[in-house]
Amino acid sequence: MPSCRTHALPYSADPTVYFERIRQAPGAVLFDSGQPASQRGRYDLLSAWPLTRLSPTPGETGSDFLRRLRQAVASLGHAKAGELPFAGGLMGYLSYDFARRLERLPDTTLDDLELPDAQIGLYAWALISDHQSRTTTLVCHPSLDSAEGERLRQLLASPSEVQTAEFHLKADFTPDLTSEDYRQAIERILAYIQAGDCYQVNFAQRFQASFQGDPWAAYRALRRACPTPFAGYQSLADGSAILSLSPERFLRVAHGRVETRPIKGTRPRGRNAEEDRLLADELRHSPKDRAENLMIVDLLRNDLSRSCRPGSVRVPELFVLESYPNVHHLVSCVSAELAPGKDALDLLAGSFPGGSITGAPKIRAMQIIEELEDRRRSIYCGSLFYLDVRGELDSSIAIRTLLARKDRISCWGGGGIVADSDWQAEYQESITKVRTLLETLRAL
């Protein structure tokens, strides 16, 4: 098997330094571990100039589109890249609404953002920063012309031109729902739970504002205010941009090992150290939040079992506290091994969208979401991911994620509703989760 060509570049703990040099290129994409402020992520990846771009065609099924993705990766050819996480392959997003191409779901919500269900590029190179070894490496697939590799090396090694990107809201964020709308939706969900239709439903509301300027300036401000280990920025073909500050991994495949890390359970950060500690302890020992988390762990164990070796599914971590600038979260981990004859795209098809942002049972929860959320989720609760020619995958759940499209920027917040949920507490939680993001943009 041929090996990728690699070129060492000066290490940078901040990937925006390098991304500045390519961010206006076609298909520019950044997978950002939130360093140096966030300590959980290990790698940053960035690339641009995809060889081709893939989006689903009208009426194309999810399985047919994933088959095209598989063919695109195969066309690039296998390559070795040592322990680096990417050797050339796919980078992009699946929107939450891509699920309609995988499952039979009602279609009643308004698609006012009109975001394609997926936009994925095939990339023959990436710049990878490893924060454990403190190295930055340009990785070029063997199929990439050596002259193009040298052009990229020189471009990335050159100081970036100073660019004065600015971003301003033209009006404040407004929610699509009133508090009364929210109350009625939660009461409807509780009625479904009492009737035995479901155990948990993730319900969300959207906030929107008009803006002017460069979404990249907004992303830079957001990552300073709220660094997270599964963040990302993707420039789309029509000039739109995805700005994601996600704390949640969806699926990872490394050497055939599978991992997912669902988040369920949230508390705000305290105003002082003592209040913060009390809120963290309250979350850690909350029967409601632990039960909510456990429901999703069980759902994900079932999802992974579709593509993983029987008997390999494990739960190595349960109810672990993770803290971020705006919230504390309760996080678990489910691991497994891919079954013979299955690959990362099979795993993605069998698990999408993530159970932590749908509910349980998944399909019934999604039907209820379709009934009660009057607009499509678009990128929210979808996934940003990369998949390389060796079958290595990493992906996020696109929460704490914004979409800058035309002259409007959209942001969503929500939470899991269970039998003992209080609508006012859930309403406040949906705001708490995105408050730092909205306040940061208001201040620009």
From TrEMBL:
<dbReference type="InterPro" id="IPR006805">
    <property type="entry name" value="Anth_synth_I_N"/>
</dbReference>
<dbReference type="GO" id="GO:0009396">
    <property type="term" value="P:folic acid-containing compound biosynthetic process"/>
</dbReference>
<feature type="domain" description="Chorismate-utilising enzyme C-terminal">
    <location>
        <begin position="179"/>
        <end position="433"/>
    </location>
</feature>
<dbReference type="InterPro" id="IPR005802">
    <property type="entry name" value="ADC_synth_comp_1"/>
</dbReference>
<dbReference type="GO" id="GO:0000162">
    <property type="term" value="P:L-tryptophan biosynthetic process"/>
</dbReference>
<dbReference type="Pfam" id="PF00425">
    <property type="entry name" value="Chorismate_bind"/>
</dbReference>
<feature type="domain" description="Anthranilate synthase component I N-terminal">
    <location>
        <begin position="13"/>
        <end position="138"/>
    </location>
</feature>
<keyword id="KW-0808">Transferase</keyword>
<protein>
    <recommendedName>
        <fullName>aminodeoxychorismate synthase</fullName>
        <ecNumber>2.6.1.85</ecNumber>
    </recommendedName>
</protein>
<dbReference type="InterPro" id="IPR015890">
    <property type="entry name" value="Chorismate_C"/>
</dbReference>
<dbReference type="InterPro" id="IPR019999">
    <property type="entry name" value="Anth_synth_I-like"/>
</dbReference>
<dbReference type="InterPro" id="IPR005801">
    <property type="entry name" value="ADC_synthase"/>
</dbReference>
<dbReference type="GO" id="GO:0046820">
    <property type="term" value="F:4-amino-4-deoxychorismate synthase activity"/>
</dbReference>
<dbReference type="Pfam" id="PF04715">
    <property type="entry name" value="Anth_synt_I_N"/>
</dbReference>
